[in-house]
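Structure in, sequence out. Go:
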């Protein structure tokens, strides 16, 4: 994906909408719709640190989790706001490279 300023580290299909994809790479994440060739539906603002992964919420269609190289997890509720994370929580002193919310 040329949209990201770094290697893509996550590609995940929405559990609620089969044609919606989350990609994470470099310092941003994107939401894509299959068949739309003009670009992503949403491109996040550039993060101050490299993003390391992401995961859709298994229970809420508009919520996703983004992991960062500084040990923070961002919770994005796209139905609330799409220009910034709803919550950022530090959980580690080192990079978080994977997340799987239950």
């Amino acid at each position: 994906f040329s949209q990201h300023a770094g290697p893509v580290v996550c590609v995940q299909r929405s559990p609620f909408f089969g044609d919606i994809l989350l990609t994470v790479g470099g310092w941003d994440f994107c939401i894509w719709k299959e068949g739309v060739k003009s670009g992503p539906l949403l491109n996040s603002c550039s993060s101050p640190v490299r993003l390391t992964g992401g995961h859709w919420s298994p229970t809420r269609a508009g919520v996703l989790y983004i992991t960062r190289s500084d040990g923070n997890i961002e919770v994005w509720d796209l139905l609330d706001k799409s220009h910034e994370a709803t919550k950022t929580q530090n959980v580690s002193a080192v990079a978080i490279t994977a997340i799987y919310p239950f």
